[in-house]
Amino acid sequence: MSSTPLRRLLVVATALAFLTSGCSASAQPSGTPTASAPDAEAGSAGEHVVAREMAEGMGASEPDGAFPRTVEHDAGSTKLETAPKRIAVVSTGQLDALLALGTVPVAATRAEASALVPAYLAEAFPERAEALDDLEDIGERTEPSLEAIAASEPDLILINSVRGAELFDRLSTIAPTVVTLGNGVNWKSDFLLLADALGMEGDAQDVLDGLHRDADAFAAGLDDAPTVSFLQSAGLRMRIMGLPSFTGGIAEDLGLGRPESQRFDETSQDLSPEQLQAADADWLFYAVEGDGAAALLEAPLWPSLGAVRGGSAVEVDLDPFFMNAGPVAARLAQDRIVDALG
Name one GO cellular component term (predicted). Predict the structure, then answer.
């Protein structure tokens, strides 16, 4: 597939930039969350907190579009005899990634208590509505059904290492299986690996180049970079995102700073309502779900935050910012931040 349809698909996603929410892992702090030392700041030593290249030793040696191809991945090596046409996606962000590449899988998992197709993807790809409606439900991301996967008759299964290392051998008896690393901090390298399995690494690189080009243009126009904070409150859990996270990488790409309280070297840290000051910054991007809305917005410290008092606390959608690390989510989140900062 040429890169022109990809750009068209991402233009659609950009037009929906009022939508917004990325990925997880956490450490339970005591007292005020502990920030990393200053040298842990994103971008030190010229490196990006979210790697922009496929991990070393991963991918295929064959050029794009060439099959058979042998793909080295996080659980070993997989040979694909022909270009896959019936793909089953198991892990976070993989439906997003395939849609960005102009492909609709035949089967997918869902996050707990979430729709099979997140709303931001359904709205970004209305022309794919019929195909998305036909997706086979193969269980929850944390507990995929091998029977349902087999029944969908895939010719490629995509999964990340959270369950992929455990299930790789069993899944490989169903269809060729490629295992990406997973976690929002690895989303770009995982996107390139996933695309390489389809013989479309160059197309994925075009998508990333577009994101980086737009982020660089925004960063170049900043006179004094503000700090940005990312906060999620869902159910009984409240957390802030660290440097090596999906949103942390977007902030770095845009040339934005992070408050000292969020310059830690973990994906996220949990907060109690009494620790809410750690979520403050020049701009605060937050998402709420279920009981998390009351837990956050009715917390005694919420009105005292500088971002809340100053009108720079921006509510965003949970899925693109915090639950789905992929190129369409990244475009929506990046554009939402740019639009807010004006």
Answer: outer membrane-bounded periplasmic space
